[in-house]
Amino acid sequence: MAELRRLADAGSADAAAQLVELASERGDMDELRRLADRGDRDAVDQLVELAAERVDVAELRRLADGGNRDAADVLAELTEDTDDAE
């Protein structure tokens, strides 16, 4: 993983894509967050998906507060589901 990270940091799109895939498979939110913070759109998408699966409201809120519309939508759905359950 360290070599993929090095290559991705050097600008290799293939390495970045592999890193996103591996991080997603492993559920590695820290790695996805690192890649997302560097502007990797696929990492952002996977981070939103993983946060939604885990019902990680804090992560979804962080992403939504950063302008991610998908995270805001998922957060709204989760909030709606919570309101409906009450």
Automatic annotation (TrEMBL):
It comes from the Bacteria. It comes from Micromonospora acroterricola. This is Ankyrin repeat domain-containing protein.
